[in-house]
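Retry 2 of 3 after timeout on previous attempt. Resubmitting structure tokens to design endpoint.
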């Protein structure tokens, strides 16, 4: 054997040569393997973190009679999505009657309520009056200690079949009822509530809470919602004092997905964003479920059965059914409230929960650990005070500057690209890519800012950055405890490698230091990535409402803070070449933006939204088309909309929410052009009686007469001297106008009021005139003999605005 090994003919190189080559090769590999491994680890952690929300569990192999059946739900959904279901449209009533028949077939006794509800907002002078129809049924328990209400609204908007929002909720309530009837009896009563008017006034849920006798029995409310057509079912909102509710709910839900930071975010906006707000007026505790995948389909024609992921509908249904059974067998006659819980889904199938006070303890632990390490580090001269101070002082200016630059770039992109000037709730079909791009861009800009200070070690700067994270842990644990894990857990993880350095162990085992950096980086990504992902999803809706570049702004601060926290990690990854990380991050972000810009297009699966409205006022008519809040008009005219403007259109502005919605703040870029006058009869106004009250106030009774009731009517009332009192349809509006606080301008919205006469009564201050403006909104374009409207191409769809493809009849009256 030795002869063979030593034979020059069989030996390719000597042992010395192999040793020399290995010494050159393996250090080189080690130099790149470690950085690449750390980056891959962080990417995997981010994917694992966002996976639970993005991907619902697979469909079950079999369906037992007492299980939630997505096949049955889809069959019912096919019936109720045959027509749009906006309040006042025939499709809503037909769907309600069909579902009532299905409840009857289950052996239950359904009830359809009919109430006229009034809501008043004295701060803004807004009044809504809505006809509310609810469908209810009740499954008695064997020894009830209270009732659980399972709710989901039936109404939608006129631009969509509403398969997800919220046809899936309505058939979900029915399918849960079917499964419960087929299964073993429960201890407590279950109330099935399919409510009306969520998209407009929430009159249905309010009428149940205020006027139905069953409301006083409700102990737990479970509400369903949808904002898209895919994704996992998310426990996104609860009522206050959820410390008992959340642990029970999470233990019952199969494959639970829940983040308390979402609950914080929802309530910071001032409302829970669904009928749960009203149901909590009756129920001590409650929770809401939603799915948020494919948000651009929200309120659009893409919200149809073909686009609805069956796994999503199944997951939401299984969650509701499990919650109904769990709470249906619990004693509900005691207190159901406790201080809030903190919870978050860490990985698929694992949701962590603990009381809010634990979050404060963790925050204090982070504070104590940070102070101790800084003191020890400064004494041992392993932390430089100058670098620490600069890191703390630089962080927020750099994050704010990066946010501003990202927002400016996004605004510029929307100005340049007509595909981004359309009206979509999710703003763009490519929202996930844009969220990723702006998160990377913000991160890269923040790291670039720190890289400019070459004399400061990134470790020292990182210690200064960590001071902000520690501060945010305390603030969040104190004010928004549900959001505290986003800050406290990364802060605690970041302390581990710092402790290794400061305690003088880095030189003894650099491998442990790198492992701790990897743990801190991956763990932080696991915690923060779901927040960035959700804020990216939510940003489209926020941008549409606020008109600000929220797609770039909302996820940016979290991305920038996280990138700065990783400064010691970047030092290892970049092998001390500081320019590598910011260049890599920003170039990747720009590559994504360029790639989306070059490849994005409108197709039958990603149709372009466009709209036309027919507006008739004072005997004249015009066509109007409107786009998103940012744009230069390039998106307004296309193969379909240009047929309405044979001549050059006039540049204008238009309110896609309707004529009188809160004045000019909601005016968007638009084009207008003349249209034939349709055979639409304008309403009339007649003064019935006018008197002077004993205290010298002028009282006017008037009546509006319409040719046919419109699904929605908007009145704008303006009095020179002010309204000391107003009644509409016999209902006094004392919260918006009174003798103590007269109102000069009022907006009144009427939904589904099926009457041809609207009685008004004004009590006026002074002798000035009263102006009454009426907009009747019909959810179809008029029949015009002289105009033949070509259908939209398959790669277009109606824009999800409240006036898309509608006829608006506006009339003005002045009462002297």
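Retry 2 succeeded. Sequence:
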């Amino acid at each position: 054997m030795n002869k063979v090994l030593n034979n020059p003919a069989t030996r390719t190189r000597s042992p010395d040569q192999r040793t020399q080559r290995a010494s050159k090769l393996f250090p080189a590999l080690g130099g790149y393997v470690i950085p690449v491994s750390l980056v891959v680890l962080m990417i995997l952690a981010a994917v694992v973190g966002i996976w639970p929300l993005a991907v619902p569990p697979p469909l079950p192999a079999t369906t037992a009679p007492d299980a939630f059946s997505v096949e049955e739900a889809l069959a019912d959904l096919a019936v109720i999505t045959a027509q749009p279901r906006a309040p006042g449209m025939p499709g809503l009533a037909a769907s309600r009657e069909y579902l009532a028949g299905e409840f009857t077939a289950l052996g239950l006794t359904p009830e359809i309520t009919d109430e006229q509800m009034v809501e008043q907002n004295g701060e803004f002078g807004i009044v809504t009056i809505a006809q509310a129809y609810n469908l209810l049924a009740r499954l008695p328990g064997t020894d009830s200690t209270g009732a659980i209400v399972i709710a989901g609204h039936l109404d939608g908007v006129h631009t969509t079949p509403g398969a997800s929002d919220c046809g899936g909720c309505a058939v979900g309530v029915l399918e849960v009822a079917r499964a419960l009837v087929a299964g073993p009896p429960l201890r407590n009563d279950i109330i099935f509530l399919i409510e009306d008017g969520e998209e407009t006034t929430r009159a249905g849920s309010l009428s149940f809470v205020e006027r139905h006798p069953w409301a006083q029995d409700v102990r737990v409310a479970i509400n369903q919602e949808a904002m898209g057509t895919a994704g996992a079912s998310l426990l996104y909102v609860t009522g206050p004092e959820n410390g008992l509710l959340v642990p029970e709910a999470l233990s019952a839900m199969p494959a639970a997905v829940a983040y308390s930071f979402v609950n914080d975010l929802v309530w910071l906006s001032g409302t829970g964003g669904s009928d749960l707000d009203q149901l909590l007026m009756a129920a001590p505790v409650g929770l809401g479920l939603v799915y948020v995948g494919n948000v651009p389909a929200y309120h659009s024609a893409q919200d149809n059965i073909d686009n609805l992921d069956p796994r999503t509908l199944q997951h939401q249904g299984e969650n509701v059914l499990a919650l109904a059974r769990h709470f249906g067998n619990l004693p509900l006659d005691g207190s159901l409230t406790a201080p809030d819980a903190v919870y978050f889904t860490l990985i698929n199938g694992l949701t962590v929960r603990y009381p809010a006070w634990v979050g404060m303890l963790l925050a204090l632990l982070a504070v104590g650990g940070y102070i101790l390490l800084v003191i020890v580090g400064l004494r041992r001269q392993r932390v430089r005070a100058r670098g620490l101070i600069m890191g703390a002082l630089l962080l927020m200016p750099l994050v704010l500057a990066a946010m501003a630059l990202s927002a400016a770039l996004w605004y510029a992109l929307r100005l340049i690209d007509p595909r981004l000037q359309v009206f979509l709730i999710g703003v763009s079909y490519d929202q996930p890519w844009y969220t990723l791009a702006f998160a990377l861009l913000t991160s890269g800009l923040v790291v670039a800012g720190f890289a400019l200070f070459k004399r400061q070690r990134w470790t020292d700067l990182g210690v200064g950055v960590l001071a902000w994270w520690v501060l945010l842990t305390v603030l969040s644990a104190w004010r928004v405890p549900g959001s505290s894990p986003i800050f406290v857990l990364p802060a605690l993880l970041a302390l581990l490698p710092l402790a290794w350095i400061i305690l003088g162990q880095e030189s003894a085992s650099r491998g442990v230091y790198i492992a701790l950096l990897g743990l801190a980086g991956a763990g932080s990504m696991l915690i923060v990535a779901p927040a960035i992902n959700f804020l990216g999803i939510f940003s489209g809706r926020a941008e549409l409402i606020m008109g600000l570049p929220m797609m770039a702004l909302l996820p940016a601060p979290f991305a920038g803070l996280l990138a700065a926290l990783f400064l010691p990690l970047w030092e290892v990854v970049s092998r001390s070449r500081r320019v590598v990380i910011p260049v890599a991050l920003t170039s990747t972000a720009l590559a994504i933006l360029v790639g989306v810009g070059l490849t994005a297009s409108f197709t039958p699966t990603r149709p372009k939204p466009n709209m036309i409205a027919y507006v008739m006022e004072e005997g004249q008519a015009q066509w109007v088309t409107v786009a998103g809040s940012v744009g230069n008009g390039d998106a307004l005219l296309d193969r379909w909309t240009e047929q309405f403007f044979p001549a050059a259109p006039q540049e204008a502005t238009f309110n896609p929410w309707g004529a009188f919605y809160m004045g000019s703040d909601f005016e968007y870029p638009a084009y207008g052009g003349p249209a034939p006058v349709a055979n639409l009869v304008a309403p009339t106004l007649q003064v019935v009686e006018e008197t002077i009250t004993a205290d010298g106030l002028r009282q006017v009774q008037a009546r509006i007469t319409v040719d046919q009731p419109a699904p929605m009517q908007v009145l704008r009332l303006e009095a020179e001297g002010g309204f000391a009192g107003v009644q509409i349809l016999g209902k006094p509006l004392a919260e918006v106008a009174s003798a103590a606080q007269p109102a000069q301008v009022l907006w009144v919205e009427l939904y589904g009021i099926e009457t041809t006469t609207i009685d008004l009564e004004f009590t006026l201050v002074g002798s000035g005139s009263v102006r009454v403006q009426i907009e009747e909104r019909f959810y179809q374009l008029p029949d015009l003999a002289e105009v033949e409207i070509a259908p939209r191409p398959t790669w277009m769809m109606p824009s999800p605005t409240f006036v898309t493809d509608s006829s608006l009849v506006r009339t003005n009256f002045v009462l002297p």
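Attempt log closed. The chain has 20 helices and 23 strands.
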